[in-house]
Amino acid sequence: MLTTGATPTAIERSDAPLGAGWGPSVRWNFLQLDRVRLFGNLAPNVIFTENNFPAGGTKYNFLLRAGAGAAFRIADGFWLEAGFFWAHISNDTGLVPGNPAWQGRGVTLSMRHAEKNTSLDEPKRCGVPILRDADENAG
Question: 63: which of 15, 18, 112, 121 lies 20 to 30 Å off by Cα?
């Protein structure tokens, strides 16, 4: 990760050897071709770290991660995905003077497997036109 937008002291002293987080993640496949998809991601999360992060901050923070990427179908149900993201961590509570924050960006490379819907029943259709074929397009 590249740390940006922080004071030199925060960059030197900011480390979090252990942490965990939770939150939703939303993906929009805004362009879907036969074997290629372009997507955008947004993930607001809450994270807890072993020590204060960034330096001068707290152990409890919010993480906002946003990015975009491309997925390439390499076999039936298997996708190779590459993406770029931006991340921001801060407590945004006003309890810490100056509210220190950390910002970074990075790249991801992953493989995803999507199971096909094998139900014998006809799937229910969503009433929203843009989401009507979401089940078929998600695999």
Answer: 112
